[in-house]
Amino acid sequence: MSYAVKEIFLTLQGEGVHAGRRAVFLRFTGCNLWTGREEDRASAVCQFCDTDFVGMDGENGGRYSADDLAAKVESLWGEWRSDRYVVLTGGEPMLQVDDALVDALHAHGFTVAIESNGTIATHPRIDWVCISPKAGSDVVQRRGDELKLVWPQKGSEPDSMESWNFGSFLLQPMDSGNAAANQANVIAATEFVMAHPKWRLSLQNHKILGLP
């Protein structure tokens, strides 16, 4: 099998429990909740996505075999042998992730994390599972390491998610592209977390720092 990749780059994890951790981001093309085309946004299940996952024209984008993809990830990580960490993201990475790729990344010494919308069961040998549910979708992956809910989402009910089996429950203010709206979202998320101590606030630190 070959994998369609939008981009691969070395950065710091900007969100969630591992914020600030050195990581290679491996972004796959395609998503099952939005085509990625602006003309389809209004009719999509997920209408607030701020990520370009269309095509293979990003940094190190292209088609790869499992071994070649793992080798590329290793080359971007550099010479350090310890604490190797790769984040599989998209789009929706579980449209493409399979045994061969997970095994190849493990063979190169990487801890494998995934950021998924949860509508497809994650691969059982992934080491760190982050699920970001989207209102109106059918979330089947209700267990993992962190649940990261972008907030506010009309139709989302965080209280109903508290019975799901996750190690951490994170609320992340939505980036709407408008400064006033963003500030209102930060206030709303902060107030929610203050009233619901099971949840923690997650910020998009990479945007604050100007990282990809």
Offer a concise description of the structure:
The chain is of the alpha/beta class. Helices cover about 20% and strands about 25% of the residues. It has five helices and nine strands.
List the helices and strands and how they pair.
Blueprint: E1 3-12, E2 22-28, E3 62-64, H1 66-77, E4 85-89, H2 99-107, E5 111-116, E6 128-131, E7 143-151, H3 158-161, E8 165-173, H4 179-195, E9 199-201, H5 205-209
Parallel strand pairs: 2-4, 4-5, 5-6, 6-7, 7-8, 8-9
Antiparallel strand pairs: 1-2, 1-3
Helix pairs in contact: 1-2
Would you kindly provide a written description of the structure presented here, covering whatever features stand out?
With 212 residues, the protein is an alpha/beta fold. It has one domain (3-209): TIM Barrel (Alpha-Beta Barrel). It is built from 5 helices and 9 strands. The protein has helices at 66-77, 99-107, 158-161, 179-195, 205-209; strands at residues 3-12, 22-28, 62-64, 85-89, 111-116, 128-131, 143-151, 165-173, 199-201. The chain has a 9-stranded mixed beta sheet with strand order 3-1-2-4-5-6-7-8-9. β7, α3 and β8 form a beta-alpha-beta unit. The longest helix has 17 residues, at 179-195. The radius of gyration is 17 Å and the shape is globular. The mean pLDDT is 96.
Number of strand segments? 9
End-to-end distance: 28 Å
- Give helix % range: 10-25%
Second CATH tier, the architecture: Alpha-Beta Barrel
**Rg to the nearest angstrom?**
17 Å
User: Main beta sheet, described?
Assistant: 9 strands, mixed
Which outline best applies?
globular
CATH class: Alpha Beta
Q: Give the SSE string.
A: EEEHEHEEEHEHEH
**Class inferred from helices and paired strands:** alpha/beta
Return the domain count. Answer: 1
Task: Could you tell me the CATH topology label.
Answer: TIM Barrel
**The CATH homologous superfamily:** Aldolase class I
Residue-averaged pLDDT: 96
**What fraction of residues sit in β-strands?**
25-35%
Number of continuous helical runs: 5
User: Which regions have little confidence, pLDDT < 50, spanning 5+ residues?
Assistant: none
How are the strands of the largest sheet arranged? 3-1-2-4-5-6-7-8-9
